[in-house]
Amino acid sequence: MTIYALSSGPGVSGIAVIRVSGLQTKKIILSLVNGEMPSPKVATLKKFNKINNSELIDEGILLWFPGPESYTGEDMAEIHVHGSIAVVRAILDQLSKIENCRLAEPGEFTKIAFQNGKINLLKAESISDLISAETEIQRQQALKIMSGRSSERFNSLREQLLKILSNVEAKIDFPEDDLPEDVIKNIKTDSQKIRNEIEKILNDQKVGERIREGFKIAIIGPANAGKSSLLNYLSNRDVAIVSEIAGTTRDVIEAHLNLDGYPVVISDTAGIRESQDEIEKKGIKLALKRAEDADLNIIVIEPKSVNFTGFLNDLVSEKAIIVINKIDLGYKDVNQQIEKFNPIFLSIKNETNLDELINRIKDKLKNKFVSSNETLITRERHRQSLEACVQNLVNFEEKNSQEDFDKAAEDLRLATRHLGMIVGKVDVEEILGSIFNDFCIGK
To answer: Structurally, what CATH architecture does the domain formed by 2-104 represent?
Structure first.
């Protein structure tokens, strides 16, 4: 089956790029253009016509990439035409009429590239991350993964485990007297060394995931304290409804921001108070859960509600910033107990001291986006595979010390498999769909 898709963004643009990949690519392109195929990888001006009556659709550039020297590893072509909706629609319509030629699924071009050995899973994911990057730090991380350092590290660890496995199997098949002493000794020390390396990679404070997904900030506090106003100010637009009526916000409202190059996801939550309203109670429950999961909580209160001690006692921690809002109303007497939390006094209405809050947030961000690890974990599936690998190595070491070598070898095989799943060295069909469905169509 040959696939096609618009690879550039939808809508009006100066140039649109349409990709075609598969066995029939050459035949399909020749049905659209007159003459012969251009030389490989040479941009060539061509007239693109309708298949049946040779009516001109547009004039543009054709690029021809014979397999396996192409992005997908198959015969592939790129059609560069003017980016009007009518031109793109006309070419896609012609392609749809060709037998055994269909519209590509999201990420299918990259999936084929992986299946043909052009890239590994880590690089495939990093391509998706680069396309989705909104901040400089996200772009840098995606390029770092694309460079292949993480893949090399995981492949190296996997190869070391395979070497240990071969020694264990030799120990099973041959008497100990026939094996060199250093082989038996190194089985234990090498497996412990690899386990320590993986544990070090896991001990990364989830920096890679924070960069990719965004630093999670929850704005929490009692009802009508100014949480939605703060979200709107930080977002520089009206994301949440602001009202004098307490309890306006009932669900979690999110905004994705670029804060001085750092990706941030800020959540406005329901005001925390005693309520008989079932919907509001569910909103309050969601607010407390979001605060628990957040990397940073901004606790917004006002001077007359600073005695909200039960709420404060539960949520004030190292990952919290306390904000006392509405100082423009003239409240002066603030509970001295609050002072020990180093609160920021501000007026969102008058935009007083908001710079101080933003600087405090930035200080928190700087500490959370630093990692000494060269190998970054950017997805939960990587972390789960590494954690499973560590557990299998623990099981292996225990059974190896008990000289239960057959079962120990199986644990080592499982550990090797989990490492291989990260880069796609084993059969990973069950996870391919979830990975490539996150791609845009045409990539």
So the answer is: 2-Layer Sandwich (3.30)
